[in-house]
Amino acid sequence: MKAIRRFTVRPVLPEPLRPLSDLARNLRWSWHAETRDLFQSVDPERWASSGQDPVRLLGSVPPGRLAELAEDRPFLRRLSAAAADLDDYVTGGRWYQEQPAGLPAAVAYFSPEFGITAALPQYSGGLGILAGDHLKAASDLGVPLIGVGLLYRHGYFRQSLSRDGWQQEHYPVLDPNELPLALLKEPDGTPAQVSLALPGGRQLHARVWLAQVGRVPLLMLDSDVEENDLGERGVTDRLYGGGSEHRLLQEMLLGIGGVRAVRTYCRLTGHPAPEVFHTNEGHAGFLGLERIAELAAEGLDFDSALEAVRAGTVFTTHTPVPAGIDRFDRELVAHHFGPDAELHGIDVERILQLGMETYPGGEPNLFNMAVMGLRLGQRANGVSLLHGNVSREMFSGLWPGFDSDEVPITSVTNGVHAPTWVAPEVFRLGARQIGDRRTEDALTVGGSDRWDAVAEIPDQDIWELRRNLREQLVTEVRERLRVSWRQRGAGTAELGWIDGVLDPDVLTIGFARRVPSYKRLTLMLRDRDRLMDLLLHPERPIQIVVAGKAHPADDGGKRLVQELVRFADDPRVRHRIVFLPDYGMAMAQKLYPGCDIWLNNPLRPLEACGTSGMKAALNGCLNLSVLDGWWDEWFQPDFGWAIPTADGTGTDPDHRDAIEAAALYDLLEQRVTPRFYERGQAGLPDRWIEMVRQTLTLLGPKVLAGRMVREYVERLYTPAAHAHRAMTPDAARELAGWKARVRSAWHGVTVDHVETSAATPTAELGSTLSLRVRVGLGALAPDDVEVQAVSGRVDPEDRIADASTVPLKPVGSPDAEGRWVYEGPLALDRTGPYGYTVRILPTHRLLASEAELGLVAVPSEDVGEGAGVLMR
To answer: The whole model's pTM is what?
Structure first.
């Protein structure tokens, strides 16, 4: 019989065990080994069967066992120590509290997904895991962050395989009462709610669940509440599910509802109000509109409110491809804003202008969430150096007239939260060298360029660690493979071969990620004979563990999965290559440490960062990757291999895959496998161990989320907080008025004449020319602009590269025609073909970038003296 109603029955813990509830409800346990060990000792079997989830564990422990533990003095001492440690962690001063004054009072961090722990499955892939690591690192550093996301009742899908290897999706229903969450409540005990207005007088209501991530609160909005109609209840049903309107409503709830949830949380708890709002990808971009509406309600006009909001907003883009950005039809967005819908106090045309692709190459009827994010954020960044370059190119249409390297998008290279991803065995090896506390600080705060203590670890210890981790992976793979084959319909009698799958002494390669086409899951299958030779080599075999999910709507990705699975099902190689379904955090925490090589072969430059290789590196796994994302930035031959790319513009995609697959096979055959199996005098692979040592010494400190969050604080959050404080209502009105005046008058700004003191087309290195420029400023004054000389090497088309700029100074008063003369020196500081030009830019003390307005005036073709001067 089926129950007509469901309850969640919570355990009543004996008084001495009450701290267990606090420990279970703070997700710090997910990266704190001592707390996990404590929960495991409550009941080891139930700990394993609960998926290592303390909330589920405590809900299943018999009262008799709890009574026994309540009398167990050694257990109670451990419990007391763990509770005291957590209290010190969440209340004591950390890195942030030791910094000079002026840092943000609080930062609100919005993301559509968060990967904190497998016990809270609210993530699909790298974006969510990155967001979770950002929160954890902020907690470790003491950064006063508030996370904001949605609570998806079905999470992302669970993946299994059919008998013929086709991906199948399952959407288990999550009960928030059985998750490590608590409802945010008003003082009278009723659940706190936020609401959005929908067209036709309807409302979208959402409750706010709180996940405590160490020191950081994570607010998660849930529309599955009784006050909503059936359609509205389903808004937060699935991560990245549904059609356009469904996604739009999710993103309105995340952005607009998220700001309202933050305000509610701060009101109820006394948490400082955020001075900085960080939009992690475009999905949360509507948060800027809600903040404009807040300021409009206080009497600020739209343009002034826009300037005030931009000052304190940071936008991070994570995709290097336009297809990865949410775009909506103009009419759909207009339908959900305006007089009878949300933000009715703001002219819907002003809202639309923020997201429309009104630039060369854009589609003018589409509302682009990343474009809105850039227009609403004064500071923006990509997630690796290469991705910063790609982003500046991709969005350069928003700043016409500027070279792509001047587009105001910087980069902060991603990092990973080491306490989450480093195997306990690796941590213990480090602690033996420098102690627990120093190891913990090295993995969380970071700050050093090298981990030189790794040099003191004996080769034998490193090699034993690597084999131990590989052996654990072999055990894990066999267990998961057996479960997968049973789901595929195999009987126990068919599965004896699984006991021989993988070998703890064979070179093990890992490949695990989402399965869009650009990540090229099946590149390794390009020449199956060569791959088989590698897998079955009599002296130097390899083995490969593959995992990954294709998006439910991506049949092309599912076909790639099936192709890989069918190859791995071949009885000739199934002991050497496996596909593990349902890739997630729990699997990843065994997979990264257990592999010797982490393989990554995307189409360059389509991998924004690719943090899985960072997690592997922290465990002594070597990277074998295309020079994309973070690997392009930090690769050295001392600690890994770069797969050559065939990325010429004229290269046929199929031919490119063939070339790069051949390069991959060559590396494996000629360089990787010989080094792994080659033995030195002590019977150890000395050169391999040295590469592991270099990976830990040189890459370890770089790939930390602690390093990443410190960069955000120093380079983006703190300047944004200062800009926010400077942008008083009067200052916002001043800036908005100035921008309007400059835009309307810019047509009158001209460079009329340029001359230099050079008499010949050559000059000596180190000499200085005098520049004299006559400009027209129309209705503007010299205080409104900066006249610059721009100089540098020139290519055969006279394009200036590696440009340097020098401001020129006005001389005297305007002439009878209203023209101004500017003068200044031009130092000739490099040899070879050299050129210069002159340009005029708007300037104001409250601008974050000289390109902010996208306005520039340059000489016309017939002004000046040609390409410049040559130096010898």
So the answer is: 0.95
